Fold this sequence. Notes:
The complex is a heterodimer of chains A (190) and B (382). With 190 residues, chain A is of the alpha+beta class. Chain A contains 4 helices and 8 strands. Chain A has helices spanning 2-20, 101-111, 119-125, 171-186; strands at 26-31, 67-70, 75-80, 87-95, 126-129, 136-142, 149-158, 161-170. Chain A has a 7-stranded antiparallel β-sheet with strand order 2-3-4-8-7-6-5. In chain A, strand 2 and strand 3 form a beta hairpin. Mean pLDDT of chain A is 78; it is low at 1-9, 15-21 and 36-55. The mean pLDDT of chain B is 90. In chain B, strands 4, 5, 12, 13, 14 and 15 form a 6-stranded antiparallel β-sheet that branches. Chain B has helices at 6-14, 17-41, 43-50, 73-91, 99-121, 164-169, 353-381, and strands at 55-58, 67-71, 123-130, 134-150, 156-163, 172-173, 180-188, 191-195, 210-214, 228-235, 244-247, 254-258, 261-287, 294-305, 310-317, 322-324, 327-335, 340-347. Chain B starts with 5 loop residues before the first helix and ends with a helix. Chain B has 7 helices and 18 strands. Chain B has 382 residues and is of the alpha+beta class. In chain B, strand 12 (254-258) and strand 13 form a beta hairpin. At the A-B interface, helix 1, strand 1 and helix 2 of A face helix 1, helix 4, helix 5, strand 4 and strand 5 of B.
Amino acid sequence: xxxxxxxxxxxxxxxxxxxxxxxxxxxxxxxxxxxxxxxxxxxxxxxxxxxxxxxxxxxxxxxxxxxxxxxxxxxxxxxxxxxxxxxxxxxxxxxxxxxxxxxxxxxxxxxxxxxxxxxxxxxxxxxxxxxxxxxxxxxxxxxxxxxxxxxxxxxxxxxxxxxxxxxxxxxxxxxxxxxxxxxxxxxxxx
Amino acid sequence: xxxxxxxxxxxxxxxxxxxxxxxxxxxxxxxxxxxxxxxxxxxxxxxxxxxxxxxxxxxxxxxxxxxxxxxxxxxxxxxxxxxxxxxxxxxxxxxxxxxxxxxxxxxxxxxxxxxxxxxxxxxxxxxxxxxxxxxxxxxxxxxxxxxxxxxxxxxxxxxxxxxxxxxxxxxxxxxxxxxxxxxxxxxxxxxxxxxxxxxxxxxxxxxxxxxxxxxxxxxxxxxxxxxxxxxxxxxxxxxxxxxxxxxxxxxxxxxxxxxxxxxxxxxxxxxxxxxxxxxxxxxxxxxxxxxxxxxxxxxxxxxxxxxxxxxxxxxxxxxxxxxxxxxxxxxxxxxxxxxxxxxxxxxxxxxxxxxxxxxxxxxxxxxxxxxxxxxxxxxxxx
Lengths: 190, 382
């Protein structure tokens, strides 16, 4: 009977193992060059929200030392301030209001780990810059924590298009680049 | 002298030929039922419900009631294995004369053990790879994972992957690699996402403006669930970083910056990373001349495994898989005007058992019939 019991134990163990499976959290270091797998669907993501970008309709002048490179995807352009600062500017334009200003402000807040705000909070945080393209709403956000990240976002609406400008990076670097970024906002022309 | 106590009667019953026939009949019924069930359930769920289970359950529509209606393959197969083992020890004498039958029985028992081991240990995934593309991971097309990526480094991403079973079971998930814990607000195996409508509960990322309508999971072959997870990264000081809606139906990961590090969150098909890479050099879809009838599918891949010192071309085609690193790569499908090849990737540590079993059964039969033949010839000569 010892053999019979052994058989039962083996079979039971196998089925018990089946109930467990491999459920551990795994970690991997993945080269950025490795192509991500194809994904289903195509719901909008971030400020590249499923609309065609409109590259025409607005011009600007870069301050001395700033460089501009063409963007990829929905991003129209990338700005790099002088001095090798760890901050970067981006330009995106989308048709319509892209979900409204509050949704976008909360999205920016979320990007640096800040909780959502409401209409009143948004209004209190907003500053205005004048340009030939119209008034530009500017939001200056800084993350919490020991290593702070700063995000300066600007929004201007021209006709049926909303333009989003963003400067984001290390808090100190973004502070250094802030005057240049605001100078670009003032230079906007239709 | 045969004993007649209850235990002996049980062992007699378990080792009887009647039980063998009953178990074989049950298995035949299960195979037919499982084959028919594949139409609605798909092959994997049908096999799980009919073959790889102790009991086949009936669940009335709209209830959580589970009624056992038939023995499952696990029960019938387990009983058959027990029956085989008991019969062997009770009926077969340990002698050279019966060595062939012993070998046949051991071979059959190994076949059952192999199936149990396969049910437990086998992992199937797919590697969809385009011509010129290099991949070192495959994807489980039936399971999901939430991946938290530290994308700060310019060269590498540090990925922490949480399997869907953990998301279903746990309220909070912590890991030493993460400076925050993930609070799982909800997990839906399948759901429909839409813009507007009832708020999903997400407060950050693209999901803040979306609604989620849970759906019954799909299991049929070729169908894909849109899984949805509502997760909230919470810092050690209790501060929330917002509730994110993650789904494999969303096009790209969402994220935030915390303490100067860039974090991305995504839900995707579960990935298995391999310590080697495959580059698809060429995919061929041969047809019979003058027709569209497929003649052959083949993938010419470059296998690179620095640790094993392997760097060679391998041609994978029907019935000629690549075996490397404990994995088997079969030619499974193709797409994109014959520029994309889909390889089925199978990890099954027990894959050799059926072969060993067949060899044992063949040797046992040869031995046994050889002995019978010798005996018969001897009797005729005398």
